[in-house]
Amino acid sequence: MFNRLKSIFRSRTPPKQLVRARFDAAQTTRDNWRHWSAADHLSADMEAAPEVRRTLRMRSRYEVANNSYARGLVQMLANDTIGTGPRLQMLSADETFNDAVETAFMRWSDAVRLAPKLRTMRMARCQDGEAFAVLATNPKIRHGVKLDLQLIEADRVSGELRWFEDDTSVDGISYDRWGNPTDYRVLKYHPGDIRYMPGDDAIHIPAEYMIHIYRQDRPGLHRGVPEITPALPLFAQLRRYNLAVLSAAEAAADFAAILYTDAPPNGESDEVEPMDAIPLERNMMLTVPAGWKMGQLDPKQPAANHAEFVKIILSEIARCVVTTYGTLAGDFSGHNYASGRLDNQIYHKSILVDRSFWETEVLNRIFEVWFREYRLTAGGRVVDERHTWFWDGFPHVDPSKEATAQETRLTNNTTTLAAECAKDGRDYLSVLRQRAKEIKLMKELGIPISSESPESPKSPEEQTEPDDGSEPREDI
Questions:
Q1: Which residue range forms the structural domain that includes residue 164?
Q2: How far is CA 395 from the centre of its chain?
């Protein structure tokens, strides 16, 4: 017996401390060794090994498919980051050339459904950890430029079984000696497709025509993990807690009343069959056996701290995508005007950073290939390829206050019309041209323009000439 207890005690003893440091977090003690038992020193690619990423993708997709908050989070990031789609603005000195290219790109974007595909890629990056898109030719595109964006799920980009032995590849992606991707190995069918057969030939796509986006959390990481990975256990806890609260409330509601007695087991009371059910009717008076009382269950559900627990869990979930509880839950009832704006500013800052990533990694690469084909189809002289992108603006909580602030900044020359229009996702040149057309038409129709204050009518005294023979005075 003693040896058995001794073995159990030894199994609970922390491993021998190997690190000597003055940092408390580096110490391994009897109290914290279980907490840090899963910590490792694997490389970035080994930490995100294929089987690990596969498990995380499956669980992330399951949670997004069954959890309203997870679904809303993924959809919210796609809608706020991509919105209705980025808009191209050329920056050459030839306005005719700029308008022609911008119009052609806009029509091509509509033809290939660029904005919906970018939103799908943003959702895949959050849910699956990475997204792939092939720049391919599609003869069915209703545009002179036949370039198309074909999306590929992360499961299809997979290496051979011996990829660990190959120093030049990481699970389907080959690299040169400088670390640049050169080739992507894409399975013909999804591994979960009924048509997939292990050992089938894969398609090798040059890196020039493949777009691969993921969040590189560690140097040396070549494949991405779902952005909501830290929140997956929290989503599960929230669902289990809500189901437990609902089950408790339903169990209590199943009992309309309980018949009980305070008499001892052998006391004086009528015999009643234990666990016997008595049907009740509405608006009826009921008598109970002698010595028995009727009572009701107190469900105590939902608990008083249920709403607070949900809020705390959602606040923790929101941090892994750099947002806040109010934005994730869509609930600003506990915020005032200032705190609501502060919440949005934190979230909008992360969206601006993410949009910069999309411009560099996705949009500029698409435009480079598109413009190369556009020059061949359109002919003509290339003036300048410089360009920028406009995104949807963030609506202000109080438009009147924002308009006043814009007017003040423009008056004291601390901003420009181009910068203010860019915040709203508009091109200032288009705004000025359209406004000039409207003002010209309003003048032709005799409609007063609000920006031009009409001359105030003169009083009768001002209209009457002086009779003292002096010249009329001109007001300066």
A1: 44-228
A2: 17
Return d(Cα 441, Cα 319) in angstroms, integer: 51
162: which DSSP letter?
A: T
Report the percentage of the chain scoring pLDDT > 90: 45
Tell whether 80 and 172 lie within a shared domain: yes
Residue 163 has what DSSP assignment? G
Considering the domain architecture, whether residues 158 and 55 belong to the same structural domain is answered as: yes
d(CA 325, CA 319) in angstroms, rounded, equals 9
Find where tokens 């408390």 sit. 24
Q: How many residues make up the chain in this entry?
A: 476
Looking at the fold, whether 147 and 195 belong to one and the same domain comes out as: yes
What is the Cα–Cα distance from 87 to 68, expressed in whole angstroms? Answer: 31
Query: Taking Cα atoms as reference points, which of 54, 240, 86 lies closest to residue 159?
Result: 54
Residue 337 included in any domain: no
Instruction: Give me the pLDDT at residue 14, please.
Output: 56
Count of the separate structural domains present in the chain:
3
Chain segment 314-352, per-residue pLDDT in tens: 999 999 999 989 889 888 888 777 777 777 888 999 999
Residue 307: how many other CB atoms lie within 10 Å: 10
Claim to verify: residue 112 and residue 214 sit in the same structural domain: yes
Q: Is residue 289 part of a domain?
A: yes
The amino acid present at 229, given as its one-letter code, is T
Which pLDDT tens digit goes with each residue over 371-429?
999 988 877 666 678 899 999 988 776 777 778 888 888 888 888 888 777 777 777 77
Let me know if 79 is exposed, middle or buried by CB neighbors in 10 A (0-12, 13-18, 19+). middle
Domain check: are 94 and 162 in the same one?
yes
Per-residue pLDDT for 115 more than 60? yes
Is residue 468 in some structural domain? no
Q: How far apart are CA 127 and CA 286, in angstroms?
A: 58
Last residue within a domain, chosen from 212, 228, 244: 228
